[in-house]
């Protein structure tokens, strides 16, 4: 039980400072309290600020055709006497000879006079406090009348009207839930197809249990989606709302039916299996659906300009196809790979031809220098192991011939691969055919003779014939 206070109390008299009649009353106070202390509850007697106007101010600012000065003075006197308690003011308002006044009429007249006085009198404070005070004295008579009429109509409703209003409220909630469900479905569809959010504004209405009596029905999809079975939307196990989408693991795909395969063949639809992964799908990792014309193959950066030039000479545009079908895109990709191989081969051939010209120029300079020196003493660089036998080729000439032969063999092999890829329309596969084997045998025989590994000499005429044969085959 609560313990009662055992402190001593005294019976004393007091006067309320908020009263002007000096009325003396008595009450119990704790012993030891200062007798001259102010009454503690006097601070709650907050007086309403009342405005007083002069005759000149009324004539200049406050005149109204519906109100006289005497009736306005009577209104301000009642407001000051009853501390702006408007129900009391309206009950005591009995102006003789005046029209019938409603509470809204009294409020509108009083607050309009106060606002006019504040606007036209000098203000000691800042403009912000003045604007706040004017705003606090704002009164809209028409709105107040409409509000009271609406409250009166609500209080006078019949039971049938209340039941109809409840039914309309429930129907409104169902429509809002359907709109939220549509927004979530649209977000999920755009996230699946494009990897972006739809950007629809969220509805501020909270979820409630009004959809407990509704049953979910499967939506029929238009177009080719009607041919396949629509998987049910996964929902959270801990939520009672059936319209909350849970991004769980994708369900296993069912085998494609015969009707679906026939539909795909008729409408040229090629379905691809999505890679199975256990990672969570994010916007950055998700590959959205795209048009095939937006993903045309592009040539590699190092040889892009040369490949574009080659395709331009052929009258083919690699940036746009009139009919970007699956087969046309595959052929364009093969063409780009073949053109890239051709450009690389052309670079190799140009390099080989440049090396040949440089070697021929060096040999010509050495021959002209040897003719001028005459019978100069041979050096170990001029002979092979000190033997200057007739019919042997100079060591430098042998190395030049070996290098030229190897370069021609590599260029011929690359050109052969490029030509076969162009004729077959397939990417080049590096393999050796009989033509390459014949060239390799000639290279080995010629190189082996130069190094002294074969006994059959190779005459200069045979080398010249071999070079002409290389040139004829590479055209």
UniProtKB/TrEMBL annotation:
Transmembrane residue ranges: none
Swiss-Prot/TrEMBL keywords: Chromatin regulator, Nucleus, Transcription, Transcription regulation
Region spans: Disordered: 201-256, 363-392, 450-475
Subcellular location as annotated: Nucleus
Cellular component terms per the entry's GO annotation: NuA4 histone acetyltransferase complex; Swr1 complex
Domain Myb-like span(s) in chain numbering: 67-114
GO terms for biological process, alphabetical: chromatin remodeling; DNA repair; negative regulation of transcription by RNA polymerase II
Acidic residues compositional bias, start-end: 382-392
One annotated GO molecular function: transcription corepressor activity
Bias type Polar residues, positions: 226-256, 464-475
InterPro entries: DAMP1_SANT-like, Homeodomain-like_sf, NADH_Ub_cplx-1_asu_su-1, SANT/Myb, Swc4/Dmap1
UniProt-listed PANTHER family: DNA METHYLTRANSFERASE 1-ASSOCIATED PROTEIN 1 (PTHR12855:SF10), DNA METHYLTRANSFERASE 1-ASSOCIATED PROTEIN 1 FAMILY MEMBER (PTHR12855)
Protein purpose: Component of the SWR1 complex which mediates the ATP-dependent exchange of histone H2A for the H2A variant HZT1 leading to transcriptional regulation of selected genes by chromatin remodeling. Component of the NuA4 histone acetyltransferase complex which is involved in transcriptional activation of selected genes principally by acetylation of nucleosomal histone H4 and H2A. The NuA4 complex is also involved in DNA repair.
Family recorded in the similarity comment: Belongs to the SWC4 family.
Name of the protein described by the UniProt record: SWR1-complex protein 4
Species of provenance: Rhodofomes roseus
């Amino acid at each position: 039980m609560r313990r009662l206070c055992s402190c001593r109390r005294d019976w004393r008299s007091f006067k309320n400072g908020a009263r002007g009649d000096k009325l003396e009353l008595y009450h119990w106070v704790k012993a030891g309290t200062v007798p001259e202390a102010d009454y503690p509850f006097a601070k709650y007697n907050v007086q309403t600020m009342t405005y007083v106007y002069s005759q000149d101010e009324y004539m200049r600012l406050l005149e109204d055709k519906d109100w006289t000065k005497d009736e306005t003075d009577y209104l301000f006197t009642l407001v000051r006497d009853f501390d702006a308690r408007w129900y009391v003011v309206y009950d005591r308002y009995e102006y003789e000879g005046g029209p019938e006044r409603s509470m809204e009429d009294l409020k509108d007249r009083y607050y309009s006079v106060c606002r006019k006085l504040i606007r036209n009198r000098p203000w000691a404070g800042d403009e912000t406090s003045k604007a706040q005070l004017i705003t606090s004295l704002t009164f809209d008579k028409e709105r107040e009348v409409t509000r009271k009429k609406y409250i009166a109509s609500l209080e006078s409703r019949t039971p049938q009207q209340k039941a109809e209003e409840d039914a309309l409220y429930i129907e409104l909630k169902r429509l809002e839930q359907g709109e939220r469900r549509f927004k979530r479905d649209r977000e999920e569809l755009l996230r699946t197809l494009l990897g972006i959010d739809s950007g629809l504004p969220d509805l501020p209405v909270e979820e409630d249990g009004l959809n407990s009596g509704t049953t979910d029905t499967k939506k029929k999809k238009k177009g080719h989606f009607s041919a396949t079975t629509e998987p049910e939307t996964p929902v959270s196990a801990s939520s009672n709302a059936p319209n909350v989408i849970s991004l769980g693991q994708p369900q296993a795909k069912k085998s494609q039916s015969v009707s679906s395969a026939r539909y795909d063949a008729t409408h040229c639809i090629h379905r691809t299996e999505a890679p199975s992964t256990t990672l969570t799908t994010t916007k950055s990792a998700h590959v959205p659906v795209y048009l095939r014309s937006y993903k045309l193959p592009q040539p590699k950066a190092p040889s892009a300009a040369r490949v574009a030039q080659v395709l331009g000479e052929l009258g083919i545009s690699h940036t746009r196809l009139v009919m970007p079908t699956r087969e046309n895109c595959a052929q364009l990709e093969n063409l780009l790979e073949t053109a890239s191989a051709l450009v690389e081969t052309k670079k190799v051939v140009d390099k080989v031809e440049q090396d040949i010209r440089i070697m021929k120029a060096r040999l010509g300079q050495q021959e002209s220098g040897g003719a001028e020196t005459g019978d100069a003493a041979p050096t170990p660089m001029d002979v092979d192991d000190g033997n200057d036998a007739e019919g042997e080729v100079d060591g430098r000439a042998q190395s030049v011939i070996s290098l030229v032969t190897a370069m021609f063999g590599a260029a011929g092999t690359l050109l052969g691969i490029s030509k076969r890829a162009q004729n077959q329309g397939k990417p080049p596969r590096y393999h050796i055919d009989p033509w390459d084997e014949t060239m390799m045998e000639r290279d080995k025989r010629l190189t082996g003779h130069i190094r002294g590994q074969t006994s059959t000499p190779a005459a200069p005429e045979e080398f010249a014939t071999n070079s002409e044969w290389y040139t004829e085959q590479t055209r």
